[in-house]
Design a protein that fits this description.
It contains 2 helices and 6 strands, in the order H-H-E-E-E-E-E-E. With 165 residues, the protein is an alpha/beta fold. The protein folds into 2 domains: 42 residues; 108 residues, RlpA-like domain (Barwin-like endoglucanases), CATH 2.40.40. The chain has a 6-stranded mixed beta barrel with strand order 1-5-2-4-3-6. Helix 1 crosses helix 2.
Length: 165
């Protein structure tokens, strides 16, 4: 059974890696949703999601220059707001950062890995993020065990208005 399942998975991976061929000229250049689903099942990624390896820094309320509002004019949310380079990740993008799943949240819950790109910063260039940890330097403790040098970041959606608090 294992050998059969391994063979099927290898065959699916081979077909998923092939380019999608259009049946007619109207569908040329279209995405391959079946291939995306197969590759997502094989790799564990969200179908059609963009993925990056990014490094991050942390910021908190009370630090010099932090007003409590993001670049959209919304209140920053502890362990949810992330500053991005808008040339790489557009504002209003919902991100999933795998390494933050299970971290303690300020309300006592655990983090689900979802962050909201609602802020930008002058020092945030290229494949770099700035994660908002909360109020005071002690809020950074929740992220102290995370290797910020190579986070797995995926675009999983977009939001309108202000991100959830």
């Amino acid at each position: 059974m294992r050998r059969t399942l391994a063979g099927i998975m290898a065959t699916l991976a081979m077909f998923a890696a092939l380019p999608a061929f259009a049946a007619d000229s109207d569908s040329a250049g279209q995405l391959d949703p079946l291939g995306d689903l197969i590759m997502g099942a094989l790799t564990g990624s969200m179908p059609g999601s963009l993925e990056w390896k990014m490094r991050a820094t942390l910021y908190h309320a009370g630090a010099k220059g932090i007003r409590g509002l993001d670049s959209l004019g919304c209140r920053v949310a502890a362990m949810r707001t992330v500053a991005v380079d808008p040339k790489v990740i557009p504002r209003r993008t919902v991100l999933f950062i795998k390494e933050t799943v299970g971290l303690p949240m300020p309300d006592g819950g655990t983090h689900d890995g979802y962050w909201y790109a609602s802020d930008i910063g002058g020092a945030i260039k290229g494949l770099k993020l700035d994660l908002f940890s909360g109020t005071g330097a002690s809020s950074m403790k929740a992220l102290s065990g995370v290797d910020l040098s190579a986070l797995s970041v995926s675009k999983v959606g977009e939001f309108k208005g202000c991100p959830p608090q």
